Amino acid sequence: MTDTTKHHTPLHDIGDLDPEGLPSSRSLVKATLLAIVIAAVVLVLAVLPAEYGIDPTGLGRKMGLGALHEAEVASQTVTAETVARADTALQSKTLTLPLMPGQGLEIKAVMKTGQSFVFDWSAEGGPVHVDMHGNAADAAEDDFTSYWIEDALTGGRGTFRAPFDGHHGWYWKNNGNQMVTIKLQVSGFYDEIYMP
Fold first, then answer.
1. Phi, psi dihedral angles at 63 (to 5 degrees)
2. What gap in Å lies between CA 180 and CA 154, rounded to an integer?
3. With 50 as the cut, is the pLDDT of residue 1 above it?
4. Cα 108 to Cα 133: distance, rounded to the nearest angstrom
5. Can you give the C-alpha Rg of the chain in angstroms?
6. Over the stretch 102-151, which tens digit does the pLDDT of each residue have?
7. C-alpha distance from residue 151 to each of 131, 146, 181 (Å)
8. The whole model's pTM is what?
9. Fewer Cβ atoms within 10 A, N terminus or C terminus of the chain?
10. What value, to the nearest 5°, has the Cα angle with vertex 145 and ends 142 and 149?
């Protein structure tokens, strides 16, 4: 047989409470003041360094909380600088270029300021001299800016963002005695890739 008896806790009116068992006004004031002091300590030691980068005691930095604020600031900065919108379609090109001993050749991309591509090239058969460079659209033929020059390289890869409107690319020269084959891959945003 199931016990259906319900146990009820009798309700008390506040007037029925023993005033001797309640905290005094003085102890309530002490507890309130203690809570305010603890909150102030947490604010100064943790919240200000982590949220606002304000660290008057230096403990926030030692506890690593300052890094939280620095990471947030860095992420906001990176977000603004990371995205570069393009007005042109994504393009990709792969070229194979034979280089006889003593021969040099150039490949360039027509780009506007801010356009970018990723590239990967290799020299099969031996190292080559390379000059990655660019010249402004209206510049004289011998007026150019070199970005990366090496005398004996068998490959290169990376990203490139055009610093100005113009023609940007590579000049390779085979200084060896054997034929070298340059294999170039370029993907990104540019108007055209051509051999001058």
1. -85, 0
2. 10
3. no
4. 9
5. 35
6. 999 999 999 999 999 999 999 999 999 999 999 998 888 788 899 999 99
7. 9, 13, 16
8. 0.61
9. N
10. 105
